[in-house]
Amino acid sequence: MPEIADIFRRYGAEYLERFGAAMLPSHFRALRDLAECRTESFGGHLAVCDHCGIWRYSYHSCRNRSCPKCHGNDTDRWLNERRRELLPVSYFHLVFTVPKELHGLIRTHQRVLYAILIRAAASSLMDLARDPRYVGGTIAVLCVLHTWTRAMVYHPHVHCLVPGGGLSNEGRSWLPARKRFLVPVRALSEIFRAKFMELARRALPDQMFPESVWHTPWVVYSKPTIQGADKVLMYLARYVHRIAITNNRILSVNDDTVTFRYKDSRKRRWTIMTLSALEFIRRFLQHVLPAGFHKVRFYGLLAPGSRGRLPQIRELLLSTSPPNPHQTTSATPDRQPAQAQVKPSTCPQCQVGSLVVVLFVPFRRRAPP
User: Fold this and answer.
1) How does pLDDT run across 287-334, given as a tens digit for each residue?
2) Nearest C-alpha neighbor of 336 from the set 88, 63, 79
3) Residue 94 in contact with residue 162, Cβ under 8 Å?
4) DSSP conformational letter for 178
5) With contact defined as beta carbons under 8 Å apart, do 275 and 136 qualify?
6) Burial of 359 per CB tally in 10 Å (0-12, 13-18, 19+)
7) 269 three-class SS
8) What confidence tens digit (pLDDT) does each residue in 116-152 have?
9) Are 117 and 156 in contact (CB under 8 A)?
């Protein structure tokens, strides 16, 4: 089965020749790391089974956060940590988007405007939730930045997972939201637009912003998590340590083209798309974030300074109402990754002995693809 790494190895040099002068450092590194992932470039280690004596060599991973082959354990760990933070209440899933007129500007000023996008979404949501007509207290907000559609088209937006309620101002009682309503999305959209534009103009005072953004709807989606917050967490976890597309969606690489499948949200069915190899690389790399940028951020009751109150809030909720059967709480055992049933060091040949590392092969960087 073809992989993204295969595409980068075959066409990376041509891509660099044509676009290398305009590439961001993070894009260049992603192109290099993914092409060399689990090859001799990153070194490896030699192990021997203490039962059957078989020798096994393993290459090391690149650990680039955009790589679809790395971070499986990190994803499971992140998901389990978020599950332990869930409260025994209903949850809401919100998505904040910006109009197409701003896409080019955001892509040009990624580090600044991505941060503002996340901050404006969380701030507008928390401000409106404090209104006594809706929640009347402080809510918890988990924000995850995505920049793609299923076809890898550039589309920056923020996913938010929010419990249905908040902590009162005095911090002694939980104020539940309505069953299927958190805040009015039309008002939320207008507040989000105003906050984003204010912060963006302050950060980029010399930049001209199109006036049409004030007359274009800023779509905000808000729905209760009918199947439970865990379903949303599982979706978000897939892309916390990778981006846009996985290897199993790539169908073929032939005649300088890449064919992959994606789910068309309008037709509600899987569709096949074929792109030139260079266009595929371009679409993939445009979603690589600037080095050190945090795509996951926490606000309100989940902010680092307030997260210590979650156990007390959970006890308060459990003492006043029965647990919601659709929610995962800290009392629910963490789901273990599938590979946890077989120890990573177990010999794949005899399934009895353990692989003992006897030699490390050092990191050896080669030239870019």
Assistant:
1) 999 999 999 999 999 999 998 899 999 999 988 765 554 454 443 444
2) 79
3) yes
4) B
5) no
6) exposed
7) strand
8) 999 999 999 999 999 999 999 999 999 999 999 999 9
9) yes
